[in-house]
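Give me structure tokens for this 483-residue protein.
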Amino acid sequence: MILSKTNTHQQGILNQDFRLDSAGLPASAHLVGICGSGMKALAEYLASAGCRVTGSDLSPALPTDQALQAGGYRVHQGHDKRFVPEGTNVLIYSPAIGLANPERRFAQRMGIPQLSYTQMLGNLMRQKQGVCIAGTHGKSTTTALTAFVLENAGVSPSAVIGAELCNQNLNGWAGEGPLFVAESCEYQRSFLNLYPYYAAITNIEPDHFDYFKNQDDMTSAYAEFVARIPADGTLIMPAACRGAVEIRTACLAKIATFSLEEEADWWATDIKQTTYGQRFRLFYQGEYFSEISLQKRGRHNVSNAMVAAILCHSAGVPAEDIREGIYQFPGIRRRYEHRGSYKGITLIDDYAHHPTAIQATLNLLRQEYPDRKVWCVYEPHQVSRTQAMMDSYSRSFRLADEVLIAPVYAAREKLGTEPVDTSKELVQRILLHNAAVRFGSSLDQIVSTLETEAQSGDIIITMGAGEINRIHHEFNRRLQRHS
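Here you go.
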């Protein structure tokens, strides 16, 4: 297979053509920004398919770098042209890595083709049937659930997931079957590099304010995405969906709707809490389909499980295999993940960084621990997102007893004092709704506050998409040191 820079979806290729094998694989690949969740998954996929993989990252993130090292990958800290091995067939870069990166500049001089993360993902997916999960919330869990059920059913899918499966330290692999399951992000319209055959939209809410001009701009991106599904493919979308008319008009494939609350093609009812999680009954076009049990709580997880079930059913998996796979699903990292205890304090970590997700997670926490004191430590993700939804964020922490706000994790943004200023502004706004909220100048300072003030029996939950989970690694390190 030859990829040419004239292809409109391959604008990241800076040199002449480069060759892949019949499966769309290079013999060797160097990943710049390899510790990002998607890049790690891609590295694992490539390596399991027989590609030689190396990588670099400015600041390897625990436990990602540990998992990569355990897998035998050569990962360099920082960025330097010396890190690009001789004989590299393609350099793959994360969305945060610009053309000024020294490894990218070196690759350009040496004639090594370059692809973005989603461009490489799209090339791989072209060889198979894409199963793409998009949406503001629930992408990672739904993607992992779908891949796990398909794997348990013997379908042997390929998968690239934005979070690790618990107990496996793995979020990407190459399967032998025809399906390729991938988390599909709308940021910068990157999911337009993919080739969905089966696709699901979990939900659509305002987000990525550093890219999308407004809600209409975001909706148009989703419309372009569903237009990529072939006529004999399938789209699964919420019955009540922002931009539903535009999305339906753009889609040529079969459309199936789902809902927890209103009439739809698929709907869940009779949701019951169990000792291990929850169960519900799933109906399709008025007919009973199956009872589904999952070892996770929260209505949002019912929705995630329902979408995964519909995707797997569309791909031909029997109901009994869907039911068994969802029940066996171990969950993914940083999604209401219990991280043990420290001096009698229960530690929980969650990826929530959008007001809707924060509220859902705290509501779930209060259901499980109605009488415990809750410390919520939140690291806002991106100044643009925090400022655009400041009012919504300020109302999201009402169920917490104590709130500690870290400086904003700026991610792709290049800013001065705004990360600190924005977090301090958020503290003042939260004060209107939560009496006990403070600003923490650093993660180290927050750890000191928690160690001094949190008492045995309290709950500490960390939230955010940045480096807030390092707090748990620090507590674990202290436990190991004391032992």
